[in-house]
Specification:
By secondary structure, the protein is mainly β. 9% of the residues lie in helices and 30% in strands. It has 2 domains: 4-188, no CATH class; 200-433, no CATH class.
Length: 437
């Protein structure tokens, strides 16, 4: 089993509660302070409602955390549910909190098990104090609005009877209400736990499996969306695996209009293969494949596709509309084929596979993202774009709007992955030796 410190933040590990394995996320290494040798673990949500624990925050409507029902329960009943080796390794850590019940001055308390604060979950706003700092994994801790809300430890500082909770977005409720509980605690970074992350060769990874690749010194999840070459339209995909970033990485314009809908001349294509490429960790760059993707090589209503040996040479690229399941009825070119993870169509089940969330959001906020495919009908200044609900959009202008970007790349399918991280001993190849074109 791997040590916690050897796993990336965002990885999922298993811990038994009353003998039943539950999922916990590595929320941050070095909590509550960097370099302290402890790792913060937070229980994950699951199922239809997202929780197996729903409790009152306080038996009376008082927003004082230190005397709350939930604080007592976490450090007695809940703690006793964990295995003895986990219990004995959990240490009381100093956490910032607002006493509540009229006292709005932030102080500190020592607790073994606790709830996260609104600050740690990424909220910045009125009627709540700054209690700590936003966790680096707030994106992975976001929740859907359809789920039962999560309690935080943060009182509403404008009164004595409300607590902040999160149900898609942040709201307040009275302490005697019932809401979800996500126990949080720290373990030594040397502590070993089983992980749910994938291990094996990439070619063995089921579609939808995610692996971690660092971008800008932060681990991002990338999804396996295809194994091998999609068709003869593609070059260099044989014996490789196509990965698509799970979340929207950033928001940028596709082009300023000068490319006239030709992805081969687009600003976003240049950015992906220069600035973005340089931001990818060196061990991934060392094995990334230089491939040729089919693209509409023209402008206006042209349907000319360059493919195979004449395809666009790229390390990183945007997926085509057809690759993510845009049906033939829409105004898209035939610049590829359907990738195996996706389904063709625009029904709810097909849309769900295309939904992507913002990597800069603290709640579960889905947003639109660009494909590489222009509109080839009358709206010649527009692109085929995936909507925030995964729906087909054909009328998004490529020169005027900053829309979500989900990069794709190709890695060898014989590449080994251990606990969700790629394993390679090959040295990074200097960029000057790996020109595009």
């Amino acid at each position: 089993m791997p040590a916690l410190g050897a796993l990336p933040e965002g990885a999922i590990v298993n811990i038994a509660e009353d003998g039943v394995l539950k999922d916990f996320i590595i929320a941050q290494h070095g909590y509550p302070s960097a370099g302290n040798g402890r790792t913060l673990l937070v229980k994950m949500r699951f199922g239809v409602n997202g929780h197996d624990i729903n409790l009152q925050w306080h038996s009376s409507n008082v927003n004082a955390y230190a005397t709350s029902t939930i604080d007592d329960w976490l450090n007695s009943t809940y703690l006793a549910r964990l295995p003895y080796d986990v219990q004995s390794s959990i240490a009381a850590v100093s956490i910032p909190y607002t006493p509540g019940n009229g006292n709005t001055v932030v102080t500190a308390m020592a607790r073994k098990v606790f709830l996260l604060s609104t600050t740690e979950l990424g909220r910045v706003g009125t009627n709540a104090n700054v209690e700590g700092s936003a966790l680096r994994t707030v994106v992975d801790l976001r929740i859907e609005s359809s789920y039962i809300g999560d309690w935080t430890r943060s009182p509403n500082t404008s009164n004595t009877t409300q607590i902040w909770f999160r149900q898609g977005t942040f709201s307040t409720g009275i302490p005697s209400n019932y809401a979800g509980i996500r126990p949080s605690f720290t373990l030594p970074s040397t502590f070993e736990l089983p992980t749910k992350e994938f291990s094996g060769m990439l070619q063995q990874a089921p579609l939808g499996t995610t692996v971690f690749i660092e971008v800008d010194n932060k681990f991002r999840r990338w999804m396996v969306v295809h194994q091998g070459s999609p068709s003869a339209l593609y070059n260099g995909f044989e014996g490789n695996t196509v990965l698509l970033m799970r979340d929207i990485h950033t928001f940028r314009a596709w082009d300023n209009g000068s490319a006239a809908g030709n992805y081969g001349n687009s600003a976003i294509g240049d950015w992906l293969n220069s600035t973005f490429y340089e931001s990818i960790e060196s061990r991934a760059r060392a094995v990334m494949q230089l491939v040729r993707v089919p693209f509409r090589n023209g402008s206006g209503t042209s349907t000319t596709i360059s493919s195979g040996n004449n395809g666009l040479q790229q390390y990183v690229f945007l997926p085509a509309a057809i690759e993510v399941g845009f049906p033939s009825a829409v105004s898209r070119p035939s610049d590829g084929v359907l990738l195996s993870y996706f389904r063709s169509g625009d029904t709810a089940s097909q849309r769900n596979l295309r939904i992507a969330y913002r990597s800069d959001a603290t709640s579960a906020i889905a947003d639109a993202w660009f494909s590489r495919s222009p509109n080839i009908n009358s709206m010649v200044n527009n692109l085929n774009t995936v909507g925030s609900s995964g729906e087909v959009m054909t009328n998004v202008e490529f020169g005027n709007l900053n829309i979500g970007i989900r990069p794709a790349l190709v890695l060898p399918n014989a590449l080994n992955v251990s606990d969700g991280q790629i394993v390679t001993k090959r040295p990074a190849i200097p960029n000057a030796m790996r020109p595009l074109g």
